[in-house]
Amino acid sequence: MSQRVGNTSLAFSRMWHHVDARERVLGHLARSIAVTLMGKHKPLYDPAVDAGDYVVVTNASHIAVTGKKADQKLYRHHTMYPGGLKEIPFNTMLQKKPEEIIRRAVSGMLPKNKLRDRRLERLKIFPDDTNPYEANIVKRYGVSQAWS
């Protein structure tokens, strides 16, 4: 008798997860999101197959960091012009683009390969409580609930 599950469409179906980022630590939250986007929580995980799920993150503007990261962390990018290195402090980024903080943290925890952009497309981040994907969400993870 075989114990193999097989490549059924049910096993590879994508679920929608909702995460409330209020008062959640950035690094722990990003790791859990990356695991879900890659599909490592599924029994059929294969690094070469994109079988991960969708993740909807709300309250991104209320994310927490530990230690002195709120004062010391910088986000850098280059405009490709001479002298075009731009540095944005964490607190400024939190006010202007809080969804970019989570997106960059999750992007850094995903494998650097061709599947990375496709996985990041399944990550939906919103700065407040509202999101247009309420009808799709199957699993919810709040502040009090543990998420791997």
UniProtKB/TrEMBL annotation:
Q: Name one GO molecular function term.
A: structural constituent of ribosome
Q: Which GO terms describe its biological process?
A: negative regulation of translation; translation
> Which key words are in the record?
Ribonucleoprotein, Ribosomal protein
Listed InterPro entries: Ribosomal_uL13, Ribosomal_uL13_bac-type, Ribosomal_uL13_sf
Q: Which domain of life is it from?
A: Eukaryota
Q: Does the keyword Metal-binding apply?
A: no
Q: Which GO terms describe its cellular component?
A: mitochondrial large ribosomal subunit
Q: Which family does it belong to?
A: Belongs to the universal ribosomal protein uL13 family.
This protein is called what? Mrpl23p
| Native organism | Malassezia vespertilionis
